[in-house]
Amino acid sequence: MDSLDTVYTEATAGLQQAKTVTELEAWHRDVLGRKGSVQLATRTVGQLSPEERPVFGKRINEVKRSLSDAYEERLAALKAAELRAKMAAETLDVTLPGRRSYPGRVHPSTLTLREIYRIWGDMGFQVYRSRDVESDEYNFELLNIPAHHPARDMWDTFHTTTPGVLLRTHTSPGQIHAMHEYCPEPIRVILPGMCYRYEQITARAEIQFHQVEGLAVGQNITLADLKGTLADFARRMFGPETQMRFRANYFPFTEPSAELDIECFLCGGKGCPVCKYTGWLEILGSGMVHPTVLRNGGYDPALYSGFAFGMGVERIAMLKYGIEDIRYFWANDLRFLEQF
Ligand code: PHE
Description:
Blueprint: H1 2-17, H2 21-32, H3 37-42, H4 52-89, H5 108-122, E1 126-127, E2 133-135, H6 136-139, E3 165-167, H7 173-182, E4 187-196, E5 208-218, H8 223-238, E6 244-251, E7 254-263, E8 280-289, H9 291-296, E9 305-312, H10 313-321, H11 334-337
Parallel strand pairs: 1-4
Antiparallel strand pairs: 2-3, 4-5, 5-9, 6-7, 7-8, 8-9
Helix pairs in contact: 1-4, 2-4, 5-10
Bound molecules: phenylalanine.
């Protein structure tokens, strides 16, 4: 009996000392386990007289129940405390700034192209897609630029290993494709796409760039239509106060021909390196479709007329966003691209 009381007292004290679930489980093994102190104490029953044995048996059961109740209670308390501590340590600080996500963005050329589509769409022009790889025939011949014509110097390009197959130098060959498809219907289309030229790369010139060609063919189309439509485009693109000028020029596939200049964004027309001290920046070439080209497209120039233009998309983007160097467009520098 004495030893059982000692076991009970020590076990109760040990229970209070267990500070973690692991320690408490070790206590359970040492006290209430198969070889635990309580089990060992029951062995002393053999030393007792027959009258004392039932009393001892009853007492030992009380001790077991009391200790295992105390164990369960302490286990629940320790588990709760551990969970609380864990939650306190692992709390999520919702006031911390979140990790930045990087949504993709649209390239400034694409942005400008979409704006151009929208404006021409509003004016009744439909997008017509044409190929990047062209034949000499479409890129030059059918546009009234025969072999050895000096005007070919304006459009030196990249040739494939197949003779007569090249990367288009302008979107103008698309005019012929469109005419072949629509003839004899009237046409109002824009033809966007990449063009390629064998050029010295400078702040103003690249070996690849976008153009948007425009073509209107019908009856009674005059130079006044060309001027009015292009001026309207420029005002819609750059604002109603836009200063512009038409300047006579030469293209083999239009007659007469003109280029459209917009006041330089950088110097406001005073003259600077970007505009080569002229105060003006050229954004497109244009003109009345040459009779030979109309005929090559299947239209009778005695009945039909039309105007055409080809605008440089990156030039327009440079004016609109104040970009001083065309090389930024293909340099893949995120510091540039992220500004759009
Ligand atoms: N294709 C010409 C160029 O690339 C531009 C142009 C298109 C001029 C249509 C007149 C008519 O320079």
